[in-house]
Amino acid sequence: MKTRDHFGSKIGFILAAAGSAIGLGAIWKFPYMAGTNGGGVFVLLFILCTLLIGLPILLAEFIIGRKGQADAVTGFKKLAPKKPWFLIGWSGFFFSFIILSFYSVVGGWILSYLFRSITLSLNGSADNFYEDLFNTVISNPWEVLIGQGVFILLTLWIVSGGIKGGIEKASKWMMPLLLIFFVVLAIRSLTLDGAIEGVKFLLIPDWSYFTWETALLALGQAFFSLSVGVSGMITYASYLPKGTNLGNSALSVSLLNIGISIMAGLVIFPAVFALGFSPDAGPGLVFIILPAVFEQIIFGQFFLIIFFILLLFATLTSSISMLEIVVSIGIKSNYDRRKRAAWISGFLIFLVGIPSALSFGVLQDIKILDLSIFDFADFLTSSIGLPLGALFISIFAGFHFSKDDISKEIGSRAVLLNGWRIIVRYAAPVAILIVFIQGVMNVLK
């Protein structure tokens, strides 16, 4: 029987964990959230929330994962025998399954746009061309299902290879390429006439935009962009050797997440302002506004291809971590079953995702809480599953482990140790409850 796999290096783990966090949340959601919430004010609040709230919870998941040295369900059973904390692991299993079912739909959209950009069919001079194209893509049942299926196959191919041979290997080349592509795109965007206005919008806070709702949205963005709450980081950390410094790893992942998010803004907003588009276009910023922006730039078609490759990489690194959560719980300690479990899980996730894929077309009239099937799946996970999962993870880590336990994992400096315990015991749970209540209230209004 195969033994439990491990990451081969610290950098491999950091890149894999950063890849889990850096997905659509950083590249797709962050720019449009910043664009619709005042730019610089939102960015500043996002950075503060990431470092003060998100980072301590991320570290909590790392500690639980490495101490458990198992999948999330088994790990909690080992750390807290005969207590119901293992339900956190099953919660992560369920919500990861649902997240990937609709996340793969967006991955399919990206593949459709990448194919169109490569075949030079992603350009048009007609008014509303890109808006009409986006609506056409997401409402075409065959196109969305084929795109979703191909995206899941790519994810399965990587996860079935295991930790060293699959996830770590893929992360080691996808993440550096992602960073290189970002630098290339940012340089091109920043050299446009009038680009400085986009930089000012992104980096200089205009406090007239500050509201408590903006603060809550920034907290939610910081929280969800780090992928905490579904036990993904617990799962990855369970493959870590004892010598890895968890505090430095958590800080590295958080800073990479902040850096990529700001880089995404530096790619998009200078170009948006330079070419006279509005920064508050919302979720359509990437699929509707950005192609129109690149169309007006020299070598824009080339840079658009690079952008969608980059977006595909970022989406894949996140989907890999979600599938790994499901697979690790499914195989328990029988690592010979990895490939079989991965393919079965992927097939079931594809089936569950079909209603979300069709929710903008043939199933568009079906509503749950006045939301489309796709939007309801997003609400169920982002506004309920992740906050509650992170809440219980924070409480467990804060109250279950002694100071000696934590000192062995993150070092013995009293200020850092006591500060971390105060945040995960009190500050983080309060912040999570605020986000949770706000999210539910917004939908039930």
Describe the model.
This protein has 445 residues and is mainly α. The protein has one domain (10-444): Amino acid/polyamine transporter I, CATH 1.20.1740.10. Helices cover 76% and strands 0% of the residues. It is built from 18 helices and no strands. The chain has helices at 10-21, 24-36, 40-68, 72-79, 87-118, 129-139, 141-159, 163-190, 195-203, 212-225, 232-237, 246-274, 289-295, 300-331, 338-357, 373-400, 403-410, 414-444. The protein is globular. The termini are far apart. The model has no long low-confidence stretch (mean pLDDT 82). It is a multi-pass membrane protein. Keywords: Membrane, Symport, Transmembrane, Transmembrane helix, Transport. It is found in: Membrane. It holds the Pfam family SNF.
SSE layout and pairing:
Blueprint: H1 10-21, H2 24-36, H3 40-68, H4 72-79, H5 87-118, H6 129-139, H7 141-159, H8 163-190, H9 195-203, H10 212-225, H11 232-237, H12 246-274, H13 289-295, H14 300-331, H15 338-357, H16 373-400, H17 403-410, H18 414-444
Helix pairs in contact: 1-8, 1-12, 1-14, 2-10, 2-12, 3-4, 3-9, 3-10, 3-12, 3-16, 3-18, 4-5, 5-7, 5-14, 5-15, 5-16, 7-14, 7-15, 8-12, 8-14, 9-12, 10-18, 13-14, 14-15, 16-18
Brief synopsis:
Its main location: membrane. It holds the Pfam family SNF. This protein has 445 residues and is an all-alpha fold.
Largest sheet: none
The chain-level structural class is mainly alpha
Q: What is the CATH class?
A: Mainly Alpha
At CATH level 2, the architecture is Up-down Bundle
Q: Overall mean pLDDT score? A: 82
| Strand segment tally | 0
Secondary-structure element order, N to C: HHHHHHHHHHHHHHHHHH
Shape: globular
Pfam families: SNF (PF00209)
Protein name: Transporter
Family: Belongs to the sodium:neurotransmitter symporter (SNF) (TC 2.A.22) family.
Main location: membrane
